[in-house]
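Possible regression after last week's pipeline update?

I re-ran a chain I had predicted before the update to compare outputs. Posting the input and the new output here so someone can diff against the archived version. Not blocking, just want to make sure nothing changed silently.
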Amino acid sequence: MSPRSTTPVACRISREEYDCIEAVNWSTLKYAVQSGLCYQHHLTNPPEDTDAMKLGRATHTAVFEPDRLLHEYVMWSGGRRAGGEWEAFKAMHAGRTILKPEEYDTAIAIRDAVHSHKAAKKLLTAKGQAECTLRWVDKQTGLACKARLDWLTSRALVDLKTTRNIEARAFGRHAGEMLYHCQFAFARMGLEASGKKPKVHIIAVENEAPHDVAVYTLTDDDLWAGEDQVRQALDRVAECRRTKRYPGRYPEALALELPGWLFPKDENEFDLADLGLVPAKAGMG
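New output (post-update):
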């Protein structure tokens, strides 16, 4: 059953304001797919801001809001980040994110690659809103929820993902491992609360030159599979909050599952390869 809300809100607010909203978001909810214990740990131990995270934000700004790049980011080319010159530079640019020259160049190169791609350009030139904040209440659990959307139009929800390889099968495996289908199912569940059901697209761009680009569209089956996992995660969080208990993945004892190849064959079993019906494994006599 999909969540429903009577008061969805979509608006443009700063990242700092968004972070202050007390609501469930996907960046922490995804850990509840594993267990309540994993969810609680990541909720109470947020990750430190890294250079990779700063570059990711700069890349998103360059792609979706290029006019804001120079206002929010500045490049430091003075070498080692220490000493009086560095401290003076930080003070002069307080409130802006400082990038290394190679990081700034990468953000610009990815921007140019994305905007030069036919399918990506079509999505980004449609009238829309960048960094859109969505808020809703999951009616089934009563949990307040929030999401921050890269790009939202009247017909499409678009998200940018940098990756090592955009090849279809490789990126599909990566997307499944990263639970991208769940991330977008969660966001679209919020959009559905206001009667919207946009198509969901991923702009995938390789993080190394020449920054090849692909646009992938998630099917209804993809999002259905994601919503099933999201629903389980939301129910788990609601139950943990109700009981004030955050159990691990396996709170009860269970049988060990060893791989089948460890077990000797029964004397009555035979190998099809012995009959020449299937090829023998390499290295086996």
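Follow-up from reviewer: compared with the archived run. The chain has one domain: 9-243. Marking as no regression found.
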